Amino acid sequence: MAGGTGKMRRKGDLPSKICAACGLPFAWRKKWARDWDAVKFCSDRCRSAKAA
Ligand SMILES: [Zn+2]
């Protein structure tokens, strides 16, 4: 059994989006796995901020 370098992952491996509220890029998170397509904000804070 030689090798085992499959541990390293590329940083750009995860998808990312631009937050519709603060305009900053944010990366995919596990909690969004189910509805990543519907995610528009980087956090709950931004999500509620836009409603203001
Ligand atoms: Zn944001």
Report what the structure shows.
The structure is a single chain. This protein has 52 residues and is low in regular secondary structure. It has a domain of 35 residues. The chain is 12% helix and 12% strand. It contains 1 helix and 2 strands; from the N terminus they run E-E-H. Strands 1-2 form a two-stranded antiparallel ribbon. The mean pLDDT is 85. The structure holds zinc ion. Zinc ion (ZN) binds next to loops.
Strand order of the largest sheet: 1-2
Which value, in Å, is the CA radius of gyration?
Answer: 15 Å
By oligomeric state, this entry counts as single chain
* Number of E-state strands: 2
Number of helices: 1
Bound molecules: zinc ion
- Relative helix content: 10-25%
Structural class: little secondary structure
Main beta sheet strand tally, sense and closure: 2 strands, antiparallel
Helix and strand string, N-terminal first? EEH
Question: What are the defining features of this structure?
Answer:
binds zinc ion, little secondary structure, 52 residues, 2 strands
Topology, pairings included?
Blueprint: E1 16-18, E2 25-27, H1 44-49
Antiparallel strand pairs: 1-2
Bound molecules: zinc ion.
Structure summarized in a few sentences:
The chain is mostly loops and 52 residues long. Helix content is 12%, strand content 12%.
